[in-house]
Amino acid sequence: MRSVTEHLVLGDQRTSTQLVRLGVRRGGVLLVHASMRSAGGDAWRMADALRRAVGPEGTLVVPTFTPENSDTSRTYRERVSGLTDSARAAVRAAMPPFDPALTPAPSMGVLAETVRLTPAALRSAHPQTSFAALGPAAGKLLSGHRQDCHLGEDSPMARLYEADAQVLLLGTGFGSCTAFHLAEYRRPTRPRRRYRCVVARGSGRHWWEYEDIALDDGDFSALGEDFVRSGTGEVSVGRVGSARSHLFPFRTAVDFATTWLEAHRHGR
């Protein structure tokens, strides 16, 4: 009869085997969007399985976005919907400033938080769309993330493209595929908008406003369906834990999305 510890080890090994069979490259760079509710199990063990799959020379990357500290985000608009002016002002006044070393990313899920909290993890500096990474390429991938560039050429997105990374949607849909956002920056016509968030400055807080691409993931699910159907996407589909998952090359996804968005986003 196996002990609890033996069952846990076997579970980790089974998940690592699933990842390898799906096509995760040992020694490569892997960007993961995950729903542990779909995958089941423990986030620490899933993170360990992912690190085993990429190996000691590989790098694991997760989004650690923080819409909670912005009053121009969808998260804020949903939170204050129906509130009085004074109640909205109170919510805004209570928003904690972004600190890359301390600020959690609750909307990104428990796996992303697990990676972020791992002692060896690094995190990029953008106050809204940061990424955390574990592995030898983490510093190169996350450095130079300009604060007026969410997910474009001066962000980890472009570095992931250059690194020939893979994307794993672990129990999530293509609506959460951040690789598609890089394609938005590569369109000839790029609508822009103003963003605002609160950041740490010294021992206090400071509201910072900037302009960037008007990010829009409203059609990413349809884009992802066409990407899979195209047959050119090299998309592998299989189970990781209990979750139906998709694995595909970052570059291929961005290149397909760049053409798709230009054809489908007429007038915007």
What does it look like?
- There is one protein chain.
- The protein has one domain (15-66, 97-264).
- It is an alpha+beta fold and 268 residues long.
- Helix 1 (4-22) crosses helix 3.
- The chain is 39% helix and 20% strand.
User: How many discrete domains?
Assistant: 1
**Widest sheet: strand order?**
3-4-2-1-5-9-8
Distance between the termini: 62 Å
Largest sheet properties: 7 strands, mixed
What proportion of the residues is helical, as a percent range? 25-40%
Q: Which regions contain 5 or more consecutive residues with pLDDT less than 50?
A: 1-11
The gyration radius over C-alpha positions equals 19 Å
What's the mean pLDDT score? Answer: 92
Can you count the beta strands? 9
Give the helix/strand class.
alpha+beta
Query: How does the overall form come out from the CA principal axes?
Result: globular
Our count of helices gives 11
Bin the strand percentage: 15-25%
Order of helices and strands: HEHHEHHHEEHHEHEEHEEH
Please write out the topology.
Elements: H1 4-22, E1 29-34, H2 36-39, H3 43-54, E2 59-63, H4 74-80, H5 85-94, H6 110-117, E3 122-123, E4 131-134, H7 138-142, H8 156-162, E5 166-170, H9 179-185, E6 192-201, E7 204-213, H10 220-229, E8 236-240, E9 243-249, H11 250-264
Parallel strand pairs: 1-2, 1-5
Antiparallel strand pairs: 2-4, 3-4, 5-9, 6-7, 8-9
